[in-house]
Design brief:
With about 700 residues, this protein is an alpha/beta fold. The chain has 21 helices and 28 strands.
C-alpha cells in the first residue's frame, strides 16, 4: 500500500495457505550407521511420504514421489542407496537431473551424508559437459571405473555414456537403480528424447526406477510412459507429510508506469530495508538484467536509506560463466545475498537457503511454473509470500481480469510427443551402440518407433553378415552429435557465438545463433551483471562480437524483417466452408534491419537506427496458418480497417491463444511483425524453444 495506488493490490485474488504441521511415520528398518548420519543433520524422524517411499523402494517397486517443493524428497532415494551399498558395495546407481547445477547441489548433499558413515567407502561423482576428458586428466575414465553413484543429466547419458559401450559396460551390468529428478520437466519433444534414451539404456541394464516431481497431475502414468513400464507397476506416493509455513499468494497490478522507478524496483527496495530475502523472477535474460540494473541504480540514489545494500543484490541467469553461477549459488545458500534477480534458471530445486519472498515479474505461463517459482521461498518451514506482478502484456491483463484460478494448484497432465523423426534418430543411436538383432531387438524397435507396423520397415541399413540392423554411415562417426535433445535440428542454431571484451579479449558470454542474431549487431547494448557493454563490430565467419564497457541510459531492441513461408502441410482442420487452419513446416528467413534505442526508465523509444549490413538467418519450424480469402480482405476494407495492421494484430492474438491452450510461454510462439503477409495469418514455434512437432497440431484440435 505504501508503494502502489488504489487497486494495485488485487485483494480478491489473495489466497492464504495455512501452516501445516509435520506428519511422521516409522520407515522400514534403517541401518544404525545411516541413522547416526541422519542425526548429524538433526533428522531423527521421517515424514510420512519419505517413510512410504523408502518402504516402496526397499520392496524393489518402481516409485514416483509427487509432493511439494522442499519436502525432503532427496532422502527417499539417498537412504535406500546407502542402505544397499552397505550390504553390496558392487551395486551402481545413476541419478539424473535436468541441470548441472542441480546435480552438483545434490552431489554436495550426498557426500556430506556419506562422510558421516565411516564404514562406508563410497565414490560419488558428477559427470557432465564440464568434466575433463584428456590424456593428462582422464577424469571420465576414472569415474566410469570407480564411481558407485554417478550424478549426471540426460545430455551426458545420451552423448557420452551410452555410445561408449566398452567403457560403461561394467557399470551397466551392476546398475541397480535409476533416479529421475524433476520428472515434470521431461515433456513434449524433450520428453520423447528422454524416453528413447531410457529405452536405449534398458538394452544394457534392467534397473529399478525412482522419480521425484512436484507439479504434475499424472506422475505414475508419466513415469511409465518415459520408462516403458506397466503403469500398474508404478507405486505413487503423493501424501505430503512435510511441515509447511503459512504461504500468502498475492497479485499486484502494475499497469501504470511509475517514474523514475518501476513497481518491481520499489517493492524490492522495501524488501531490502525490511531485512527480508527474496528471489525476483523475470521472463527473459534481458529483462533480468534491466531489473537488476534498475535496483542497483535505486540503491545508489537512496544510499542514505540503503547503505551497503548494493552487494546484497545479484543477478543470476543462463550465459554466465560456470564459476560465477557457482559463487552466487554458494552465497545464496550461506545467506550472504538478500535479493537475487533470476530467470527460470533458478526455478528448479537447488538449495538456495531460506528465502521469504518470491516476486514473480509477469504472470507465469503455467501453473507448474508458478508453483515451482513460488516454492523457492518458504523453505525450512518458514512463512513466506508469493507476489505476482502483472505487467501490461495482453496475457497479464487477462490474468488481472480473470484471476479466480491463478493460485489454484491444478496441474496439467504431462505428455510426451510421438514424432517419428525423433524415433528414427534414436534408432540410429541404438544401432551404433549395438546392432539391432532381428530376433532379440524387434520388440525394442517397434516400441521405440511406434509408427512401425512391421519389423521389415525398420529405417536402418540391414547387415546380411551379422543378420542385424546397423547405424547408417550418414550418422557416423558419433550419432548423438546429430541428435540434439534440447533444441531444434537446425545445425546453424546450435553454433555458439562469443562476445569478447576489448582490449583484453576475454570472453564475456557465449550464445547460440538464434539469440545472437537479435542480440549482437553493431550498436547493440548487451548487459552482463548489470554492466552495459557496447557492441562495436561483428565477425560473422568467426562468430565473434567485439565489445567494450559503456555507460548509457538506454537499451537496444532489434527490428527484423521476417518472411514466413509454408513448406508442407501436415494437418488441416476445416473452420468454415471455404476456410482451413493448417499446420506443418514453415521456412523462416529473418534479417535484423535496424534497432531502437529505448530509455531504460520510461521504456520510450529515443531513436531508431537503421542497419545497412546485417547477416540473414534462415531456419525451419513448425507453424500454423490460415489463408484469408478476398471476401475477408474486402470486409476489412469496407470496415475502414488497415488490412496489414489487422492481420498483424490477429496474428498476435493467435500467438496468445495458442500459448494458453498449449501451456507454454507466449515467447515460444512467434509471428512476423515487420513484414506480415496481407493474405495469411501465420505463427510458428520459435526454434530456440524445445521443438515439439505435435504441439501445434494438438492446438488445432482444441
Amino acid at each position: 500500500n505504501q508503494i502502489g495506488g488504489s487497486g494495485q493490490l488485487v485483494t480478491t485474488a489473495t489466497r492464504v495457505l495455512p501452516a501445516r504441521p509435520a506428519e511422521y511415520q516409522t520407515p522400514p528398518p534403517i541401518d544404525p550407521a545411516i541413522q547416526e548420519a541422519l542425526k548429524s543433520r538433526d533428522i531423527t524422524r521421517l515424514y510420512t511420504h519419505q517413510a512410504q517411499a523408502i518402504g516402496s523402494i526397499s520392496q524393489n517397486k518402481h516409485t514416483v514421489v509427487n509432493t511439494a517443493t522442499s519436502s525432503g524428497k532427496s532422502l527417499i532415494y539417498q537412504i535406500p542407496i546407502l542402505q544397499t551399498l552397505l550390504s553390496n558395495p558392487q551395486a551402481r546407481f545413476l541419478l539424473l537431473f535436468p541441470t548441472k547445477a542441480l546435480a552438483q547441489d545434490q552431489e554436495h548433499s550426498l557426500k556430506q551424508l556419506v562422510a558421516q558413515i565411516p564404514q562406508l567407502q563410497v565414490y560419488v561423482d558428477t559427470l557432465d559437459g564440464d568434466t575433463p576428458n584428456t590424456k593428462d586428466c582422464p577424469e571420465r575414465q576414472l569415474i566410469s571405473e570407480r564411481a558407485q553413484i554417478i550424478l549426471t543429466n540426460f545430455d551426458t547419458l545420451h552423448t557420452s555414456m551410452l555410445p561408449n559401450v566398452p567403457r560403461w559396460h561394467a557399470f551397466w551390468t551392476r546398475l541397480h537403480l535409476v533416479v529421475i529428478d524433476e520428472l515434470h520437466i521431461y515433456q513434449h519433444a524433450f520428453g520423447q528424447h528422454v524416453s528413447h534414451i531410457l529405452s536405449r539404456l534398458q538394452r544394457f541394464a534392467h534397473p529399478q526406477f525412482v522419480a521425484c516431481s512436484a507439479t504434475t497431475s499424472n506422475p505414475g502414468e508419466h513415469l511409465a510412459e518415459l520408462c516403458s513400464l506397466d503403469p500398474e507397476s508404478v507405486n505413487i506416493i503423493d501424501q505430503n507429510g512435510a511441515p509447511q509455513g503459512q504461504r500468502t499468494m498475492m497479485l499486484w497490478d502494475s499497469q501504470t508506469q511509475k517514474l523514475p522507478f518501476s513497481d518491481t524496483t520499489l517493492i524490492s527496495s522495501h524488501i531490502l530495508s525490511s531485512g527480508l530475502r527474496a528471489v525476483v523472477f523475470c521472463r527473459t535474460r534481458h529483462a533480468c538484467e534491466l531489473v537488476f540494473r534498475e535496483i542497483a541504480d535505486y540503491i545508489e540514489q537512496h544510499y542514505d536509506l540503503l547503505a551497503n545494500k548494493a552487494a546484497q543484490v545479484v543477478c543470476y541467469r543462463g550465459g554466465y560463466a560456470l564459476s560465477e553461477r557457482r559463487d552466487i549459488e554458494q552465497r545464496l545458500f550461506n545467506n550472504q545475498i538478500q535479493i537475487v534477480v533470476a530467470t527460470s534458471a533458478l526455478e528448479l530445486g537447488i538449495d538456495v537457503g531460506a528465502l521469504d519472498i518470491a516476486l514473480i515479474v509477469g504472470a507465469p505461463h503455467s501453473q507448474s511454473s508458478l508453483w515451482q517459482q513460488s516454492g523457492r521461498a518458504g523453505r525450512r518451514n518458514r512463512s513466506c509470500l508469493t507476489l505476482v506482478v502483472a505487467e501490461t502484456s495482453p496475457l497479464d491483463r487477462r490474468i488481472v481480469s480473470q484471476h479466480c484460478e491463478l493460485f489454484e494448484q491444478q496441474f496439467a497432465p504431462a505428455h510426451i510427443s510421438t514424432d517419428s523423426s525423433i524415433s528414427t534418430a534414436h534408432l540410429q543411436c541404438a544401432a551404433f551402440e549395438r546392432p539391432l538383432d532381428r530376433k532379440y531387438d524387434c520388440a525394442f524397435a517397434l516400441q521405440l518407433h511406434k509408427d512401425l507396423l512391421d519389423p521389415d520397415n525398420v529405417p536402418l541399413p540391414w547387415d546380411r553378415a551379422t543378420n542385424s540392423w546397423c547405424c547408417a554411415l550418414s550418422f557416423k562417426p558419433w550419432p548423438p552429435l546429430l541428435v540434439p535433445i534440447r533444441s531444434s535440428h537446425n545445425d546453424n542454431d546450435r553454433l555458439l557465438w562469443q562476445v569478447l571484451v576489448l582490449p583484453s579479449l576475454r570472453v564475456l558470454e557465449e550464445m547460440d545463433t538464434w539469440r545472437a542474431q537479435f542480440t549482437l549487431y553493431e550498436g547493440a547494448i548487451l548487459f552482463y551483471q548489470g554492466q552495459a557493454f557496447g557492441i562495436h563490430s561483428i565477425d560473422v565467419d568467426s562468430r565473434l562480437a567485439m565489445s567494450s564497457v559503456t555507460d548509457v541510459s538506454w537499451f537496444t531492441r532489434a527490428s527484423s524483417r521476417l518472411d514466413i513461408v509454408p513448406v508442407s502441410t501436415e494437418r488441416a482442420v476445416k473452420l468454415a466452408d471455404t476456410k482451413w487452419i493448417c499446420s506443418g513446416s514453415v521456412s523462416i528467413s529473418s534479417t535484423v534491419v535496424g534497432y531502437s534505442r529505448v530509455d531504460t526508465r520510461t521504456k520510450r523509444i529515443i531513436e531508431y537506427v537503421p542497419l545497412p549490413q546485417t547477416y540473414p538467418h534462415t531456419t525451419s519450424a513448425n507453424g500454423i496458418w490460415i489463408d484469408l480469402s478476398l471476401a475477408d480482405l474486402q470486409l476489412l476494407t469496407n470496415s475502414k480497417c488497415n488490412v496489414s495492421d489487422s492481420v498483424h494484430a490477429a496474428q498476435h492474438a493467435l500467438c496468445a491463444a495458442i500459448s494458453l491452450a498449449a501451456g507454454c510461454d507466449v515467447a515460444e510462439i512467434c509471428t512476423a511483425c515487420t513484414n506480415p503477409s496481407d493474405k495469411r495469418l501465420v505463427v510458428y514455434q520459435a526454434s530456440r524453444a524445445i521443438a515439439d512437432k505435435n504441439l501445434l497440431p494438438s492446438v488445432l484440435v482444441q
